[in-house]
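the two lines:
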Amino acid sequence: MVAALSELAGIEADDVEVFLDRDAFTVSYDSTLVALDDMYEAITNLGYTPGLDTLPSDQERTPTTAGKIPEPVASALIEANRQQKLLFLEFYAEWCIACKALEETTFSNPEVQAILDDYLVLKIDTDVGIEASSHFRVVGMPTLLVLDAEGKEITRLVGMIESESLVSVLQGLLVE
Amino acid sequence: MLNLAVMSKSYTKNLFIIPILVFSVAVSLVAKAAAAEAELSKFTIFVEGMMKSQSGVT
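prediction for all of em together
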């Protein structure tokens, strides 16, 4: 799989770090040369499926808006409604290098922190919140979701995102 | 003779510039490489069953 990914433009073999015990790997890549969809395709072509192994079978898979919303998202949604805010979910893991990079860059930006004050923020460790991660079909990290009052996903941001872009998206959602 | 002396002096002066130019280019290349490294995006992808098939990680 490392070989297949490193054949893609913008990815070197040294840029792929495997976490075999987590069924995951972290890729450092040039986003101007390769997209996440290209990586998904490379993985699929090898006969694998990008996503958490805890996902139910295809027959049982339902849209993220359907079915009972698992904890801790359900409780957070109630609180978000009480505060009349949208719910911002961040899926991460302690061992996720990409998540740490996002924390150190985008989430440490004062403008991002300021706009997130208008949201109810819930961080979900994918190692702990397995049910929630599966429910929202988290394929990789970092994954950021915004849910409306009914728990419907209105925005999904996957991968690294610049501070300016995140602020723009979040401001746009508040205006709507 | 005077002209030659002036040219020689100028040539010698230019020789001193070469290491500076080389150093500048090297610094520029290192800076560009560092910038390219810093611009790399990172993403962690889950793959179903990767652990069950070690061959998938080769």
